[in-house]
Amino acid sequence: MADTWRMWWEAARPKTLPAAIIPVMLGTALAKAHGSPHYPKALVCLGFSLLVQIGTNFANDYFDFIKGADTAERVGPRRAVASGLVTPAAMLGATWIVFAAAFCLGLLLVREGGWGLLPVGVLSILCGLAYTGGPYPLGYNGLGDVFVFFFFGLVAVGATYYVQAHGLALEVGLVGAAAGLLAANILVVNNYRDAETDARAGKRTLVVRFGRRAALFQYAGSMGAALACPVFLLFLGYGWPVLLPLLLVPGAILYPHRLAQSRTAGEQIALLGSTARFLAAYGILLAIGLTAGA
User: What mean pLDDT, rounded, does the chain reach?
Assistant: First the structure.
């Protein structure tokens, strides 16, 4: 039983989960800064975000195997279906169960935030499936980064804030964009590592389309833009604590260099984890800054 749970936990890809957690934290910190936090609603948002992330990862595990992107030649972490740990039917069934749970949980948000949230939630789930499935899979056509930026940045931060504050503000968009860019950087490292096998499988990620040099510019530019966000927030009237994420600048300078110098899958897998931790550290520092500097 323990081995089964470990296998499913591995299939959920825990290194990617900060991309689901941090936007909800930031949306809640903004709501608190504006005097309208509601922590039970925030927990529902967190549950929905995590379920969409895990469902997307399960769907990716299934569809990448079916489409031939995950094979014995793959150099990244093992995938449950490709390694024979889970049958394709079981993974597809788990995908539907997780997305169904996300939908049911999302109905609670609709009750609290209004029917306008229903299409947002449904679209989040459908795009999670369409990331690697359907007639035009986003991840296979260079739109995976856009999906992550939009849904795990702008939408996750915006919806979390909206459910609690019943409105939107300029800084919600700024913070959402910063979170989305750093979440997409996790995907950049993943696709940087898998560029050759993705190309052979017809998976035309941005790295496959434009090359690793362009990926380096995207990775570094996203970090730079995210670190500029606190400065804009300062000009919008937040206090100096909002600049806490700038403590991460030394690491932000080193990370693109690490990606450029990486030559082995092991180095790139380690950097993927570091990139997720950078997102987590950035989100925690910014959340502290938003609440302390309001």
Answer: 93
Separation between Cα atoms, residue 104 and residue 191, nearest integer Å: 32
pTM: 0.94
Helix-strand-coil split of the chain, %, nearest 5: 80, 0, 20
Cα separation, 194 vs 65, whole angstroms: 14
Residue 46, both tokens: 């967190």
56 touches 128 (CB < 8 A): yes
Length of the chain: 294
First-to-last CA distance in the chain?
A: 48
Dist. CA 165–CA 148, nearest whole Å: 24
For 273, phi then psi, to 5°, come to -65, -40
> What are the pLDDT digits (tens) for 158-171?
999 999 999 999 99
How many Cα neighbours within 13 Å face the side chain of 139? 27
pLDDT in tens, 9-54: 999 999 899 999 999 999 999 999 999 999 999 999 999 999 999 9
pLDDT (mean) for 175-180: 98
In the chain, where the domains are located: 2-292
Distances (CA, A) of 98 to 51, 85, 135, 137: 6, 19, 22, 19
Q: What is the DSSP string of 178-238?
A: HHHHHHHHHHHHHHHHTHHHHHHTT---HHHHHHHHHHHHHHHHHHHHHHHHHHHHHHTT-
For domain 2-292, the question of CATH label 1.10.3470 is answered with no
CA 120 to chain centroid, in Å, comes to: 16
Please give the Cα distance from 14 to 21 (Å, whole number).
Answer: 11
- Cα(166)–Cα(150) distance, integer angstroms: 20
Distance CA 130, CA 250 (A): 37
